[in-house]
């Protein structure tokens, strides 16, 4: 029987089929293009990211411009929080970017408001090699409004230099439980005399509880665009961090500040925490920032709870604004982002494994040891049947904001995990699909 991934996608379709020299010209799948009619066209391209991502993206854009004379690209990037606000302001003001990053939590809302273009209606965009399962993550009411920027997931990174110096053994990530992780984190704090906290992950970002809910047999968001996570699961998610803090494995309230989202700015790089949850496509950046002895692990609980928590969740998607003044050129840029091997050679796995299997295969020889480790983990995760994943419902941005607000209240002890969970369900259900 053919091994499958989420929703029955063959594993080779997820990571990239073997490609013969005749099947893929490494000079790129996008090819050159004639100058835009009427002179030069400038596209506005806005995305979420840091300076390192911007450097790689700019290199890819240069390739696009060389292959498409007559089209120039003005790009802008922003950190995660300000990005969402900036995007909302741009759309509200009637001046949206031509090509943009769209968050999972916002796709349905933007699509149903008519602000995004149906990508299948654009002949300049070739979707022939994009697996149906990947396309389904951007579908709303039978139309395609977003394409995953890459395939990735979250994982745990541990600074092995710290654990070796402390004499703490890192558990086996193929079998460890959440209880094992708590014991490990607490031991690190104790054996470093409190100079390093064993755990430093973000409680307030929904990727954690989404995976945690799946492990417990629940869909955080359901197929019919509703909230499916239980009050008990949200309570336990909050309670876990409270218990870990009280045991000493997690930093005290107020420890974390707004320092930016890059690996270089992280507490893992500073050496004040020994482990952190990250999007695993950023493993290379974290390893380099923290000194080169960081190990990449699967999330706890994957083999000890009801089912796997992993799925094919893109962190972001590519979209085109419905009111783009240059829709054909915008579609050419998006086609380049997903189908051009030369462009992918510049960005590699910065946004995850490329969604076009041929492009994923083409960049393999160019990958570093760290990026290969990330790709190998994605492959290994697909060995077992994974839970399905669905388009986030309208109002998911409110759900995410509510989680952040309540996580802060729990952190400072102003509300109990049980009360926070109750409030979370009430506010989230009130916002869903409204």
UniProtKB/TrEMBL annotation:
Residues 1-36 form the signal peptide. Keywords: Signal. It holds the Pfam family SBP_bac_8. It comes from the Bacteria. InterPro entries: Bact_solute-bd_prot1 (IPR050490), SBP (IPR006059), TAT_signal (IPR006311). The keyword Signal applies. Transmembrane segments: none annotated. This is Family 1 extracellular solute-binding protein.
């Amino acid at each position: 029987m053919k091994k499958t991934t989420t929703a029955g996608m063959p594993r080779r379709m997820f990571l990239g089929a073997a490609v013969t020299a005749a099947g893929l010209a490494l000079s790129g799948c996008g090819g050159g293009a004639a100058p835009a009619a009427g002179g030069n066209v400038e596209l506005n391209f806005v995305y979420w990211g840091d300076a390192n991502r911007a450097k790689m993206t700019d290199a890819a854009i240069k390739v696009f411009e060389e292959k498409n004379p007559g089209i120039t690209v003005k790009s802008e990037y922003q950190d995660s929080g300000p990005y969402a606000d900036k995007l909302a302001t741009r759309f509200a003001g009637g001046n949206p970017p031509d090509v943009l990053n769209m968050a999972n939590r916002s796709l349905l809302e933007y699509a149903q408001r008519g602000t995004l273009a149906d990508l299948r209606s654009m002949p300049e965009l070739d979707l022939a090699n994009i697996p149906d399962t990947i396309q389904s993550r951007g579908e709303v009411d039978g139309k395609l409004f977003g394409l995953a920027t890459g395939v990735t997931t979250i994982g745990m990174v541990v600074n092995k230099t710290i654990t070796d110096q402390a004499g703490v053994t890192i558990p086996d990530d193929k079998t460890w439980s959440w209880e094992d992780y708590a014991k490990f984190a607490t031991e690190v704090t104790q054996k470093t005399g409190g100079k390093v906290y064993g755990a430093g992950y973000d409680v307030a970002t929904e990727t954690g509880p989404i995976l945690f809910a799946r492990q417990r047999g629940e869909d955080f968001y359901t197929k019919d665009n509703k909230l499916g996570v239980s009050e008990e699961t949200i309570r336990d998610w909050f309670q876990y961090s409270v218990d870990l803090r009280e045991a000493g494995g997690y930093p005290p309230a107020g420890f974390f500040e707004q320092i930016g989202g890059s690996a270089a700015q992280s507490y893992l790089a500073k050496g004040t925490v020994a482990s952190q949850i990250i999007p695993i496509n950023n493993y290379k950046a974290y390893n380099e920032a923290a000194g080169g002895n960081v190990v990449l692990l699967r999330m706890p609980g994957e083999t000890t709870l009801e089912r796997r928590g992993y799925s094919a969740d893109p962190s972001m998607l590519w979209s085109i604004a419905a009111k783009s003044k240059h829709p054909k050129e915008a579609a050419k840029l998006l086609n380049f982002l997903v189908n051009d091997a030369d462009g992918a050679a510049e960005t590699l796995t910065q946004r995850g494994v490329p969604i076009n299997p041929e492009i994923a295969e083409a960049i393999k020889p160019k990958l570093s040891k760290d990026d290969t480790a990330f790709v190998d983990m994605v492959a290994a995760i697909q060995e077992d049947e994974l839970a399905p994943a669905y388009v986030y419902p309208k109002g998911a941005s409110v759900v995410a904001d509510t989680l952040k607000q309540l996580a802060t209240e729990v952190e400072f002890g102003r509300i109990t995990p049980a009360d926070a969970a109750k409030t979370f369900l009430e506010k989230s259900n009130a916002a869903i699909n409204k």
